[in-house]
Amino acid sequence: MATLTEETRGETDLPATDEARWRDDPQLAKVPQVHPETLVSPDSRAVIVAPHPDDEVLGCAGLLMQLAGSGHEILLIAVSDGEHSHSNESAFSSDLLSHVRPAETSEALTALGISNITIMRAQLPDSRVGEHQRKLQDLLGAYLQRGDTVFASWHRDGHPDHEAVGLASRDAARAIGCRLIEIPIWMWHWRTPEHHEIPWQRARKLMLGPDMRARKKAALECYRSQLEPDHSTGNAAILPPEVLAHFHRDFEIYFV
Ligand SMILES: [Zn+2]
């Protein structure tokens, strides 16, 4: 995820949405279920484009487990190392975070039981991905193959990095001839179910059984730098329990 600074928060400077709002929402309840094989056909490689280390598990741990279980080829493109999740005054310096956070992703993927995955780190600057959107698009163009199924953060997700990743992925996927599927992440926190931009008609629900749900929860616990309050500054955790609640569900939502 990564925190939003005062400059980047902008229109998303709204009260957070409680998970109960989503749980009780009739539109979310009506979203049709989808099979992983419908999202990614058996002969297609899955490419996950994650803005920050943790988005891959927050957004699509269940899908990753199911694809890995069926022997799918998976490429994870880590756009940034998430080095700016903490304030400049924090003992979590950007240098430290650029090592810690990718290691947390590796640990989380292990917790999911996923070993057959290739990770490519683009190392674009965290919180400034939008300034490098064209570079990211070119980079994706170099890595994507025709027929890949590309998963990226939703281009209206409410976080500038997530939106830039969504737009660059959309353009690169279109140019190469790949299917693009978008994943809402910040949406669950900053938007409400009534938000006019949520593309409910494109939404599909991937169910997670109890074992997968437990493994996703265990994987999320690996992102310790994001889960614990920053004692060096007194700042709250990036992913406090009320945010994590959106990702402890027994389903994931994809915009196809
Ligand atoms: Zn993120």
What's this entry about, in short?
The strands form two sheets. The protein has a five-stranded parallel beta sheet, with helices on both faces. It contains twelve helices and seven strands.
Question: Can you give a write-up of this model?
Answer:
- Helix 5 (55-69) runs parallel beside helix 6 (94-112) and helix 5 packs across helix 10 (210-220).
- The protein has a single domain (33-255), classed as 3-Layer(aba) Sandwich (Rossmann fold), CATH 3.40.50.10320.
- It is of the alpha/beta class.
- The protein starts with 5 loop residues before the first helix and ends with a strand.
- A five-stranded parallel sheet has the order 3-2-1-4-5, with helices on both faces. It has a two-stranded antiparallel sheet with strand order 6-7.
- The protein has helices spanning 6-9, 19-23, 26-30, 36-39, 55-69, 94-112, 133-143, 160-176, 187-190, 210-220, 224-227, 241-244; strands at residues 46-50, 74-78, 118-121, 149-153, 179-183, 203-207, 251-255.
- It has twelve helices and seven strands.
- 40% of the residues lie in helices and 13% in strands.
- Helix 5 links the parallel strand 1 and strand 2.
- Residues 5-12 have low confidence and may be disordered.
- It binds zinc ion.
- Zinc ion (ZN) binds at residues 1-2, 51-52, 55, 162.
